[in-house]
Amino acid sequence: MALNDRKLVEIILAIMKACVEADNFSVLQRDKNIDFELQYRLDRNKQKEILLELTTEDYFDSDENRNEPGSYLHEFSKTVSLERFSTGKDEQVDIYVKFRVDHVNTEDQTVVISLHELERPALHPFSSI
């Protein structure tokens, strides 16, 4: 269920980015994420850079978290330039980012569930293209 309120997506992004800037985020160590990190040498600084560069135009979906009712998962995709480890060459890579923002002990925390190559087409409701 994509959000149709651009302002709400801007607020979600602002909260996520504040967490990332405060180094209050984590990327789950799932197989796809780990493989992607290794394939493109993504260290924590590069992960931060990718997250901080997300825009409203990169947004495409939000859904309630099945595992945590009341929590929402937000999905974004964008094309970024990354260096492939095996070749040392920069490539344009379509990436997929899914995250949630949790409120824990009076602090917001961002949990990135997915950060890997995009696997399916994404329609961006706020894209100007």
Descriptive account of the structure:
A five-stranded mixed beta sheet has the order 1-5-4-3-2. The two termini are about 20 Å apart. Strand 3 and strand 4 form a beta hairpin. It is globular. The longest helix is centred in the N-terminal third of the chain and has 16 residues, at about 5-20. With about 130 residues, it is an alpha+beta fold. It has helices at about 5-20, 30-40, 45-50, and strands at about 25, 60-65, 70-85, 90-105, 105-115. About 25% of the residues lie in helices and about 35% in strands. The model has no long low-confidence stretch (mean pLDDT about 90). The protein has a single domain (about 5-115), classed as 2-Layer Sandwich (YaeB-like fold), CATH 3.30.2310.40.
Which CATH class? Alpha Beta
Q: Which strand order does the major sheet show? A: 1-5-4-3-2
- Summarize model confidence as the mean pLDDT: 92
The oligomeric state is single chain
